[in-house]
Design brief:
Length: 286
């Protein structure tokens, strides 16, 4: 079968373009590969222990892939039954794999043959998904995580170990800057100017939705040379709160929207409005 497949891969043109020595070399390598496959199959077939080991490993992988993350205890909806049948697992809300989860998943995947380069990419990926799924289940993750990232963890861990890192399994955290902080960094005072303008235009009882809309409109006028903004009401609220409230921002030029009764009313109005797609936009910005 290997010889037939290899012959099918060589077109008539490629065969004619090769010298006899090259063709002989290709045939010799193909026959050698076929013999290795036959030797492996014969070894597996004549060695019951090897065959049983493969069946046991396959059963473990299949069981891990079929773990139900939604199953819960009858008396405790925050827990799931442990795989060993004793005790239970508390389900947390974390979605990103921590150092412990990555370490266990890598170790289990290697035990199951993830590092065997003779396996195909699909076979190794299946092992990786199973290992990550089982570890995530045992450690209380709400769903499986890390299956598509295992090869990156393995590559990075190997590199850091060989380069002398004392903590090769630590997660690389890239600090993110919020949309409003980036504006303040690139154009100091810009948000303050727009906010004070919106307060004068809309009044102190205006909702954060109206304030954000007014700030965006002002930033898009022809006389404004700085960037046109796309602020969301929640971004404005968080920025105002982080800067000490409306009174501090307006330089004592009005009531405090955040701390005063009027501020509470404006905040409640902002919370009551529909935040459907806006919440997603805020998260994208932040």
């Amino acid at each position: 079968a290997i010889l037939e497949r290899r012959a099918g891969e060589l077109s008539v043109v490629s065969i004619r373009s090769q010298t006899p020595a090259v063709l002989f070399s290709i045939m010799a390598r193909t026959i050698d590969a076929a013999n290795k496959v036959l030797e492996t199959e014969a070894t597996d077939a004549t060695n019951p222990a090897v065959a049983a080991s493969f069946r046991n490993l396959e059963q473990k992988i299949e069981t891990a892939l079929n773990l139900d993350f939604d199953v819960r205890l009858r008396h405790d909806t925050s827990g799931r039954p442990a795989r060993n049948g004793t005790g239970h697992i508390v389900v947390h809300k974390r979605k990103q794999a921590d150092t412990k989860m990555r370490s266990c998943a890598l170790f289990l995947a290697e035990l199951w043959g993830y590092g065997d380069e003779s396996l195909t990419w699909e076979q190794r990926q299946r092992i990786g998904n199973a290992a990550c799924r089982q570890v995530a289940y045992d450690q209380g993750y709400p769903k499986s995580t890390g299956g598509s990232q295992l090869w990156k963890w393995r590559k990075r861990t190997k590199f850091l170990l060989e380069s002398g890192s004392s903590d090769p399994m630590s997660r690389t955290v890239v600090p993110r800057i919020s949309y409003t902080d980036k504006i303040e960094k690139d154009h100091p005072g810009y948000l303050h100017e727009l906010y004070r303008y919106a307060r004068r235009t809309k009044g102190v009882r205006a909702s954060f939705s109206d304030i954000a809309e007014c700030m965006n409109a002002k930033s898009g006028t022809l006389e404004e040379e700085r960037p046109t903004l796309s602020l969301h009401k929640l971004q404005v609220f968080r920025w105002v709160k982080a800067n000490g409230g409306s009174e501090a921002l307006a330089n004592s030029g009005g009531d405090d929207l955040v701390e005063s009764g009027k501020g509470k009313k404006a905040r409640d109005e902002a919370a009551e409005e529909d935040t459907g797609d806006g919440d997603a936009d805020v998260e994208a910005f932040l």
